[in-house]
Hints:
Elements: E1 5-15, E2 18-25, E3 28-33, E4 45-49, E5 52-57, H1 59-72, H2 74-79, H3 82-89
Antiparallel strand pairs: 1-2, 1-4, 2-3, 4-5
Amino acid sequence: MCLAVPGRVLDIGEKDGTRMATVDFGGVQKEVCLEYLPDLQVGEYAIVHVGFALQRLDEESAKQTLELFAQLGMLQEEFGDPWEQAAAVGGDPWPFADDPDPDPGAGRPAPALAAPQEEGRP
């Protein structure tokens, strides 16, 4: 699914002749094209779809929408790591967590022993 998500403009610059911004979507930051809203300023909110800021939005509406999306898990669905999401759907833990497992062997069976080697062979 591809949502139009409200975000807050953190900074504005130019990239290859195109007006771009870093936009915060409830903790996730992405680069966004501002060509459709050339007068958008730092601190303002906009609805963003597929990397383009499409419409200015007031702060209260933006925050309410972001909170609702977060409660529904839609921000993770939209901005989360697709590999992590696939692992979760498959029922496996994500192996690349930020916090390494302090006891990697806990709760797992001991590794199989190697097959005995034949003696007497050079």
